[in-house]
């Protein structure tokens, strides 16, 4: 199984073929399963379409077409004769619809950065039974443990967190993923603080930097998406108070909006609004549905 570790390193197809070669099973390989259409251009790495054409693989299953016109065309190249491969796209098979949607969801953040020049932006909003975002005095949250786990899984999956200076001053949040194991050897998670008035405490910024965050400050919310994309962020999560969330909503900066509402009885109610195939779909093993 091949995994693309970082930009500039061999893609998943090349990694899988290399592993098969090193373990002595490459000549037995007949089927390749890929989430994204194999690239068909030479960038920082050679084209994966050529690597597969030059392998014993006969059939290539593709989860999603490449939205980037610069890299697209791998499926067509794989089919070219002589020596063409059988290529199957999941979205052409009715019984593979769910899996095809999963692939689209997985790739949505990457596609957002490549095609729109901005990361996919998810908003997480927690509400009490009265519809308020403000926890009772002395508490940091009011949602259930399962909802907290979901929030930490989302935080772990994203490349960046966007918050407001008001939230920092009120709560001095740590933005950890302590309720789930974080990814090992990951780059520092970016943390953008929207601070128009220069109120961010120096000691909090220093503490967060020492905790492994790359702390960035912005006086203009509208400039944040491009700032993050320039640093390679595919997926950003907004965690803030009512003022920041109102500003994000007014500017239309969100791609999906996760609302966790505490109920008087029973589990929290979790709803998702999305403007596309949401990557949150991949976290739907939670008891509450995350179907967009």
TrEMBL record:
Top-rank EC class of the record's enzyme: hydrolase
Protein name (Swiss-Prot/TrEMBL): Riboflavin biosynthesis protein RibD
Positions of the CMP/dCMP-type deaminase domain: 1-76
Pfam families given in the database record: dCMP_cyt_deam_1, RibD_C
UniProt xrefs under PROSITE patterns: CYT_DCMP_DEAMINASES_1, CYT_DCMP_DEAMINASES_2
BP-aspect Gene Ontology terms: riboflavin biosynthetic process
InterPro entries, sorted: APOBEC/CMP_deaminase_Zn-bd, CMP_dCMP_dom, Cytidine_deaminase-like, DHFR-like_dom_sf, RibDG_C, Riboflavin_Biosynth_HTPR
Family: In the N-terminal section; belongs to the cytidine and deoxycytidylate deaminase family.
SUPFAM superfamilies: Cytidine deaminase-like, Dihydrofolate reductase-like
Gene Ontology MF terms: 5-amino-6-(5-phosphoribosylamino)uracil reductase activity; diaminohydroxyphosphoribosylaminopyrimidine deaminase activity; zinc ion binding
EC number: 3.5.4.26
Claim: Oxidoreductase is one of the keywords in the record: yes
Pathway the protein takes part in: Cofactor biosynthesis; riboflavin biosynthesis; 5-amino-6-(D-ribitylamino)uracil from GTP: step 2/4
Organism of provenance: Gluconobacter morbifer G707
Keywords: Metal-binding, NADP, Oxidoreductase, Riboflavin biosynthesis, Zinc
Role this protein plays: Converts 2,5-diamino-6-(ribosylamino)-4(3h)-pyrimidinone 5'-phosphate into 5-amino-6-(ribosylamino)-2,4(1h,3h)-pyrimidinedione 5'-phosphate.
